[in-house]
Design goal:
single chain, alpha/beta, Rossmann fold, four-stranded parallel beta sheet, 4 helices
């Protein structure tokens, strides 16, 4: 806990999900929207599903490491930025279609808002071209 408990009040901390080892789209978001705080980063290859074949077929997805990874990244970012609102940036283009529905369902279950563009975030404005 910081000495000033409300140091991050009214700010937005962002967890990045998707992309590669070097998350270029998230980096661009953070650099262009200076008001956003960079939280944890989860590359696409860390989203491990227990039953990937079922997920690809649109069936019920068994609990997997991906749920734990996403939940822990969000909680850890909350601890790092107390009093900030935590959002998730989804690197939409890097996520496979079958990965999106269970991921969005988990974010909804956790009550975490998300975006895939700068103007999806509070006071985000537009990213420069």
């Amino acid at each position: 806990m910081s000495a000033n408990d409300d140091e991050y009040a009214g700010q937005v901390a962002v967890v990045s999900i998707g992309g590669g080892h070097h998350p270029h789209r998230f980096e661009r978001l953070i650099l262009e929207c200076e008001h956003l705080l960079a939280g944890h980063i989860i590359p696409s290859y860390f989203l491990k599903y227990d039953n990937e074949a079922a997920a690809r077929a649109g069936e019920e997805v068994a609990d997997g490491h991906w749920k734990h990874t996403v939940t822990e990244a969000i909680e850890s970012t909350r601890r790092a930025f107390p009093d900030a609102e935590v959002w998730v940036f989804l690197d939409w283009k890097s996520l496979r279609g079958w990965q999106k529905p269970p991921l969005l369902a988990l974010l909804d279950e956790l009550g975490v808002p998300w975006g895939k563009r700068a103007n999806d975030f509070p006071s985000g404005g537009e990213m420069h071209a």
